[in-house]
Amino acid sequence: KSYNIAIVGPMGMVGRKITSILAERDFPINKLKLLGTEKNKGKKVTFKERTIYTEVAKKGAFKDVDIAFFCAGNEVSKDLAPIAIEEGALVIDNSSRWRMDPKIPLVVPEVNPEDLDWHQGLVANPNCSTIQMLVVLKPIHRRYGIKRVVVSTYQAVSGTGKRAIDELNSQVEDYISKNRITNSVYPYQILFNALPHIDSFLDTGYTKEEMKMIDETKKILGKDIQVTATTVRIPVFTAHAESVNVETKLPMDIDDLTTILNYSKGIKVLDYPGKNIYPIPINCAGKDHVFVGRIRKDYSIENGVNMWIVADNLRKGAALNAVQIAETLIDRDLL
Ligand code: 2RA
Fold first, then answer.
1. How far apart are CA 233 and CA 217, in angstroms?
2. Candidates 3.90.1300.10, 3.40.50.720, 3.20.20.140, 1.10.287.130; correct CATH number of 3-126+318-331?
3. 258 within ligand 1 shell (Cβ under 6 A)
4. Which tens digit of pLDDT belongs to each residue from 119-164?
5. How far is residue 89's CA from residue 14's CA, in Å, rounded to a whole number?
6. Residue 315 to residue 327: CA distance in whole angstroms
7. Ligand 1 mean position to 128 CA, how many Å?
8. Signal peptide location in the record (predicted)?
9. Residue positions in the annotated binding site for phosphate?
């Protein structure tokens, strides 16, 4: 069987990635519709040697669509996703608009595929930094029971979008040509810097990105798990890195834990510190796995472990996870 697929927001970074991942994985597609803004109408996109012209995302466009990937931001998801569902499409939404709605499953296929079973036409894709952390936390939680997680992130500029990639590139050029370095996307120069500020600040002092990591982890893994987060932007183009401290209920043997992670779906352990082998963003960009290394006992508490988790934020953190949701829905006969 093959499916009619739509991508809403096909010209953005995630939309383009979804298109290329659908081709790479040979997703069973009958017809691919690329639905963008009025301004982008008629743009040419190549898909598996075929040329597709973008159309306008609007009411009526979803009547012949089986699965619609939404990656055009919260407002578009808020307005158009209910229309797409009404017209018969199953929506996989990359925005944060529906993630915390208790009636909407929030899914990482390696972690909670069973939550797809209660979908009502829309499945939400979690935040990029949450997805990669949860792929690693799930097998730990299953075996040892997680009590508390303390995470600090080192996030790539592509998480902000194309304008941020352009800003970092032009700051590199300005630095080399000894021009004045300017910034507009971030409040400070990102080149040679680290900004403890992703998304906007809330009254509590936390950022929205930090709250996404906390709230989404609880929704997916369980509300009893305590989570605290600090999210930081660094001058890397692709792949987010995270330092994660986990406290468990049961004692962990680090060798056993490493073996469990090694055999878990979607994870690759890279952990030979004596040979300088550990995951780094440059090597993880463009890959599908979540990479984990620097796995070591936390001697400051009874049952604790520290680790370093890296994954491509545009692939597993967004487009790939969305496509895997679609594949899992098909496998579970839920379309
Ligand atoms: C970021 N989490 O990296 C965002 C992208 N969704 O800014």
1. 20
2. 3.40.50.720
3. no
4. 999 999 999 999 999 999 999 999 999 999 999 999 999 999 999 9
5. 20
6. 15
7. 6
8. none
9. 99
**Active-site residue list:** 128, 240
| Ligand 1 pocket test, candidate residues 13, 17, 128, 238, most atoms within 8 A of CB | 128
Q: Which two tokens stand for residue 122?
A: 């829309």
Spell out the domain ranges in the chain: 3-126+318-331, 130-313
Tell me if 198 CB under 6 Å of ligand 1: yes
- Could you tell me which CATH class the domain 130-313 is placed in? alpha beta
Task: Judge if the beta carbon of residue 127 lies within 6 A of ligand 1.
Answer: yes
Per residue in 52-103, pLDDT (tens digit) is 999 999 999 999 999 999 999 999 999 999 999 999 999 999 999 999 999 9
Nearest CA to ligand 1 atom 4: 159
Burial 313-325 (b: 16+ CB within 10 A, else e): bbbbbbbbbbbbb
Which protein residue's CA is at the shortest distance from atom 1 of ligand 1? 159
- Equal fold, 3-126+318-331 vs 130-313: no
Residue 160 has phi, psi (to 5 degrees) of -80, -30
